[in-house]
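Take a careful look at the sequence and tokenised backbone pasted below. I need to know what the token row says about the fold.
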Amino acid sequence: MTQRALRSSGEHTPGRRRPARIDAGSELDPVHPIKLPATAVRTSGLTAAEVAERIARGEVNDVPVRSSRSVHEIVRANVFTRFNLIIGVLWLIMLFVAPIQDSLFGFVIIANTGIGIVQEWRAKKTLDSLAVIGEAKPTVRRDGVAAEISTSEIVLGDLVELGPGDKVVVDGAVAEADNLEIDESLLTGEADPVLKQAGDPVMSGSFVVAGGGAFSATKVGREAYAAQLAEEASRFTLVQSELRSGISTILKYVTWMMVPTAIGLIISQLVVKNSNVRDSIARTVGGIVPMIPEGLVLLTSVAFAIGVVRLGRKQCLVQELPAIEGLARVDVVCLDKTGTLTEGGMDVTEVRPLNGADDPYIRQVLSALGASDPRPNASLQAIIDAYPSPNGEAWRCTEALPFSSARKYSGAAFVETDGRSSTWLLGAPDVLLPDEDPALGEIEQLNEQGLRVLLLARAEGELEGPEIAHGAVPTALIVLEQRLRPDAGDTLRYFADQRVATKVISGDNAVSVGAVAGKLGLPGAEHTLDARRLPTDPDDMATAMEENAVFGRVTPQQKREMVAALQSRGHTVAMTGDGVNDVLALKDADIGVSMGSGSEATRAVAQIVLLNNSFATLPSVVAEGRRVIGNITRVATLFLTKTVYSVLLAILVVCFQVEYPFLPRHLTLLSTLTIGVPAFFLALAPNKERARPHFVRRVMRYSVPSGVIAGIATFVTYLVARHYYTGTEALGAETSAATLTLFLVSMWVLAIIARPYTWWRIVLVASMGAAFLIVLMVPWLQNFFALKLVGAVIPWTAVGIAVVAAAALEFTWRLVSRRFPA
């Protein structure tokens, strides 16, 4: 049986340092995860009977893994809104006092709410199915057999195995420790990994950076330290983002404007004019309803939900919805080479002996090193594949030092078949060798070809000693060839075309990383920098980050500092990675992107998980985010233009003491043709423009002047018509003329927003105009919407005023674009 088989079966080779462990005995304290007596856990784990007993007692890790809110929450969030309440009350009033035509706005709201519920429910189903695919499955030992189970199936007292990159899923106490180093920075803020011994507590939310072992669950379910945080973080919620917070700010301003204006309009129509009560109520409601941008929130939710569904089809799990928006704002993408630009696997292409070392002996050393690590990284796995453990007598491992990203090497001590002892290190040549060593020149040439080189060195002394690498004798160079991802080059070119800077940050040799990046066509790949020479001053580091594209020998803590340095210069940073050394940087980046095959820890902290492990999916995510933000900015201008002209018209009506010019049916028609239908299509259209900040300012700078121009033009037409028409049918003719002007001006706003034109945008705008023309021409539609143009003078006057307003719109938009750039 090989060393690896012995380790995986729970047995241990005689003479090898036995991992510290807690032996069988009393049950763990489920409340206080403190250092426990050494008689707390059986190394074989719980029996099936004990598991069943704990399940019966409810001692199960029953925190639901929720990637979406429930159907009940979706319905409640879409139905019970402030504006739905206002519109609902007004709708009930209109059902009693006016014809059904004036109550159409209520049916529109019901339809919109239904669409929102259905779309979010679709997104929920997509997210739930993807969450199951991407769910971490810890390895639990029961009845002496290790098996992967769902996190929710862990029971109190379960023995959970740990290895590099594994996330601690419940609170517990260490039962076995083999150089077990756990990073608790996400919980405590301390950056240095903690070396754990038997009996030490471990907290859910921390993760393993080196070594291995096992722990016994002392707290499960909602009692676990990070359970509430994990549950909250994994929900499908439209949490804070610039887009949604900006819309909330706009709605707050709208409410402030709407309340006093609506009160003034009610008094004006019901008291001052003292006209027909039913007609006054209808016109009052007609003035209040369009002030509410009710479809804006709906369209934002629908756009996000459809984005989730689209990305789900590409096996992309969006764990936090604003990540779609955030990645669209990104201007710097930091990539980890291994697993992102290159595939996870590597191949040993050559072994070069040094200092007269014997080639067969080197092969024995490499075989023994491979057998000494139960959880090999990609480099060691390539060595294992090339030099598997012999079937006969193998070297006996007495001590092992797992690979650490901070240390850059691993090691092991052996008793060889002839009884001699030897200690070996395997890792980065430029870390293990002094700067003046002649072998570094040879290594540099290999790195320039994009090859990865490891140094095998013989050492003296204890492996855990801080000076173990000093004085190590170089024995061989192991040359590894990395497998480039076939789609990585196209993805890098996409980011270059989109003016998104790409930084490759790796723990490997900088020259080697630069060569790989150069093969893939990364702009600036020739600008490489060894992170050991990186300035410590944040401002100088930010300058170095902006001037260079490839960084090698980067430690996990440096990755975090590099992200912070870029952010200090105002950059929006996305970080991709799949290894445990990427966790801190992923957490601090504006957007963290993890590969589906990455460690549990990286998947837990990332906002986006690429379940298909394809870096090529990122452009789709960027494009989806840009589509959402760019289009919502467009349609928000439409909605808020309506709000501005509605408020202005109400104020003018109060000031001039006249009837409100419109009934609800008129504004329902106008809103549907100039906002509702076009906004739906525009919100889902492709949009490649990079998202820019200051959403509220960018929307208001166009919607306010547009709304003012539309409101003034409409009211001028209304006043001209009031002086022209007389008799009992005059108000209907005045309303029709004002409606014509408002429609034409609103259509011009739509025509501006629809730019740049494509065939379908032209068809969209033209079909809305044709629909209004049909309403004016078909008699029963004229009667239904109470629209009938009388004579030729005022209708053509309305058209003329609309033309002047359109010219004013063009001039104003161009002036605003020059004077107030976003």
User: Anything to note?
Assistant: Residues 618-656 form the longest helix (39 residues). Residues 1-40, 229-240 have pLDDT under 50 and may be disordered. The first strand starts at residue 20 and ends at 21.
